[in-house]
Amino acid sequence: MHSRIQILFFTILFMPCALVQGQHKNILDASDLTFLEQMVKDVMEASRIYPGQKISKDFGPNQTEGILIRPGGRTSYPAFWIRDYAMSIETGFVSEKEQKHMLDITASTQSDRLIRTQWGTSIPKGSIADHIRIDDGKPIYFPGTYSFENQGEKKWGMQPPFCDQFFFIQMAYFYVKSFSQTTQLTKEIRGVKLIDRLELAYQMPPSNPQSHLVEVNDSNRGVDFGFRDAIYITGKLCYASLLKYHAAKQMAYLYGTMGNKSKALGYQHEANLLKISIIRAFSDARGMLSASTGTSAQADVWATSLAIHLGILSGQLRLKAAQYLRDAFLRGELSQKGNIRHVIKSDDFSPTTAWEKSAVSINTYQNGAYWGTPVGWVSQAIAYVDIQTAQKLAKEYVQELRDGDFRKGESFGSPWECFNDKLTQNPVYLTSVAVPFIIFNKK
Questions:
Q1: In sequence order, what DSSP letters do the residues of 23-55 get, joined into one string?
Q2: Which of 421, 424, 379, 383 lies closest to 397 in space, CA to CA?
Q3: d(CA 66, CA 47)
Q4: Cα–Cα distance measured from residue 242 to residue 271, given in angstroms and rounded to the nearest whole number
Q5: E strand or H helix at 236
């Protein structure tokens, strides 16, 4: 009798969590998920650049001898962007041949030495390109330009964005894991083994020697994550550190497949340390994570929801953050038509800017417009405390896609990169559907 009571007690104690976990796969109903899946396939196809294909009058055709996947269709972003592609691989809609080509071209354009630009900025050894030209294959390490010679303006940071190094690791991880291509890791690319290039990339972003968090000041600032390269952020950097945590776990896996237990354990230890450091450095009383410990330290919706997805925030921390996101959604401060702001409205730095320091006006682009890319993470987070509200958010997101579906004709553009109630920006945008689909399609 006593043991039955114990079993019943523990069943009741853990049932809510178990139910929520199971409900995550039901955030979208079957018809909406099927619609989203087909849209991801169609947007990805629209984003492919085939060998010899010309997509812009300002650039020559794709001469990289393989298929590239750009950030979206039509005429936006006519180059190969590492982060957008890497964030979309897990959809399962990128072939082995395509993955290998894009991994090889990314590895081959990694900087093998320190480069000084004409602007007084630098490209450290190990740097991965922000984007790569399709016509001549030249790497552009800094945002804001397609010119190899003219890149590096200080407004984009004193060194290249930090996210691309970690997304390069993600590209290798998915290629090796999906196709059992462990031998690729010892293949030499311009005289350096791929696994060594991955380590060089991992080591490129500057980090705090104690916490191992990515950290910068005004003199060595770099963009933490390319989806806010117009935002000036300094101090310890949350989003870049989340990506570093994820990359450390992926490096541990890769070394494990090579039979290098020492390296695998070292990277797993690194991931464990980063997890603790992230919670200590960025958590506020509401469970939200701040974007940084310096300039532009606003509570960060994207970072917080990603941290929940990665399992960094769990237990009471996860529930507090989820509740705050849920309440912000119900107040109308988090989303518009199911798309998500970087900063909840009531957390804006001032009436004139969401972030403390931004190169763009409030409520536009990365400074308060609404984005589809993080809606899967946010919906998943809210589901921990309120599955019905999570479903409502996801339903609004899909409804906007149905209403604005780019396949209806040229006057339609959904999925957009971002929008507000007056403006839309960059139609047929891949991560706006690919990243949410990855979450909603989890089994």
A1: HGGGSS-HHHHHHHHHHHHHHHHHHEE-TT---
A2: 379
A3: 14
A4: 10
A5: strand 235-236
What dihedral do alpha carbons 425, 426, 427, 428 form, nearest 10°? -140
CATH number at residue 152: 1.50.10.10
Average the pLDDT over each of 71-75, 140-144, 218-222 and give the range with the smallest value. Answer: 71-75
Q: What are phi and psi for residue 403, nearest 5 degrees?
A: -65, -40
How many angstroms separate the CA atoms of 311 and 360, rounded?
32
| Within a domain: 5 | no
pTM given for the model: 0.94
Number of domains forming the structure of the chain? 1
Nearest CA-CA partner of 91 in 437, 443, 397: 437
pLDDT tier at 25, thresholds 50, 70, 90: low
Average pLDDT score, the chain: 94
In a domain? residue 16:
no
For residue 313, tell me if it sits in a domain: yes
Domain that holds residue 138: 25-440
Q: Is residue 66 part of a domain?
A: yes
